[in-house]
Write a structure and sequence with these properties.
The protein is α/β, with parallel strands linked by helices. The protein contains 26 helices and 21 strands. Strand 17, helix 22 and strand 18 form a beta-alpha-beta unit. The relative contact order is 0.09.
Amino acid sequence: MPDDNRDFDGLRVASLESRRADDIARMIERVGGHAYVSPSMREVPLPDSRDAVEFANRLITGQIDVFVLLTGVGTRHFVNAVERHIGRQRLIDALSDMTTVVRGPKPTAALKELGITPTVRVPEPNTWRELLTTLDTELPVANLVVGLQEYGTTNPSLIAGLEARGAKVDQLQVYTWDFPEDIAPLEANVRRMAAGELDVVMFTSANQVHHLMKLADDLGLSEKVQNAARQMMIASIGPTCSDALREHALAVDFEASPPKMGILVNHAAKAAHDVLARKRRVATLSTLTAPNDTEAKPYDQSAFMKACRREPTDYTPVWLMRQAGRYMAEYREVRAKVGFLELCRNPQLCSEVMCTAVEFLGVDAAIIFSDLLPILEPMGLDLEFAKGDGPVIHNPVREAADVDRVIDLESADSLHYVIETVAQTRADLPDHLPLIGFAGAPFTLASYAIEGGASRNYLHTKTLMYRDRGAWDALMGRLARSVAVYLNAQIAAGAQVVQLFDSWVGCLGPTDYNTFVAPHVKQLIESLTPGVPVIHFGTGNPELLVPMSQAGGHVVGVDWRIDLDEAWQRIGHDRAVQGNLDPLVLLADRETLRARTQQVLDQAADRPGHIFNLGHGILPQTPPDNAKALVDLVHELSAR
């Protein structure tokens, strides 16, 4: 933990603050930083006030039930734009008599100047998510007309959230954002960022981010700014600002809580040295580039890798999900000495249990030993593997405002033990065996985070998904970006293939999958290192095979709830497939095991691109010799 007395100690600190540029420069210098402050934006009233006047007429004639004011400057611009048309006192009387909702201290102060006390105040950090949560508890808006004074630009997520609650939204825009009249200081900071001449960059508004990156793009420096920022500390005033930073691929290293300028400067100063040391230590991972080693490896021509590429093979390759697990006595012996999370954090032991299983079974690929959920810990979720209950999230995401607690995984250093497991397992495996990395898919991770553990009906997950599309997309976007960082780090450490597990997605139908899940999975897969095969695996609903394959992946995993030939027909023969023996067949007699193995192989019909696997993981009750017999049977029966 950083020393509470530590300050910037000579670090170069840029701030894009406009209204309080002098104040923030003094704050930075007071805690030992070299300040580079550049105003980045100014409010510009819209030249035509007719829309505002028409809005005011609807307001004073009772056609608007609730008036939401997002900014102080917007409130003042509105009054100035309409008072000469309808009369200042008439407007004040109308505002005094109606329900008003304010998003923080600035619109509260603007109303106070008019002698008006707002009806409802949104608590910190005053984002649109807190606004919606406040309305849910204090002012249900179903069937009401909600007037919305916007923050310079439209917030589609807020409007969608209001409409999802049954409100009719009447939008009011009275000003927009523009660059400052003198952009030279802002340009100087853009050039400093691109050249790596800053240590800390602080933002106090989402529009500062947009303007910085717009100017960087105009100067042809946006890529250099994004790359250089990976070795700087990026500090944000609050969640909305952080969302804008992530939108422009700028990692958020510190977010002020509560969202106050003094908190931003002072707490960033305490954290800066540790953050910079961490980011610079893991710079090679956070650049998300694959290793430069282009020399062909023995595993490149393995049956497994050829099948991923849909090339002909001498036999059907096979590996088994949970091939290192509780069905093996060796694994149970290890678990008797260490807890599950402790095991996951021990790269040597993880490699040992996997290599033991691979050697025993004789499979054609290894998968790292880990779990889907540890990625949630550095994202702000309190994870515990409780004995007898499985994984438990003690601070689940239930409301829109909770999404702001979920932190983007900006680099994989917080999961260094998994990355070290990849490297250790790759080093310990025979050269001819490929290594598979993996992660949970966004929907499955989101469901764990929202439900807090296992669920039968996904009540909380679907409630958030249906009720608040903006919050849902924000959560899924953070998970998709984080999983991409995580998988790319595994690839860089030595994984030849990665698998995306969507273990809980079967609770959805195709329409919901395409609406709420597919865009995020597509974004994730497109962000992965080119040339590395991706296995996309989901369970529980064969009707999702087509939309899942359309979302992406070189290989589509198939569970046992559909015949393999029918599944492949749906997916398309331009894609490889993996599967799909029912795991419970491994508890049957050898005759049945042989017959059912042959059935799956017959359905594959020797078509290039089949990887034999179970439809899900090996069950703990499975006799180890049956698992080994399955691998031998696949090799024997598929020999060509």
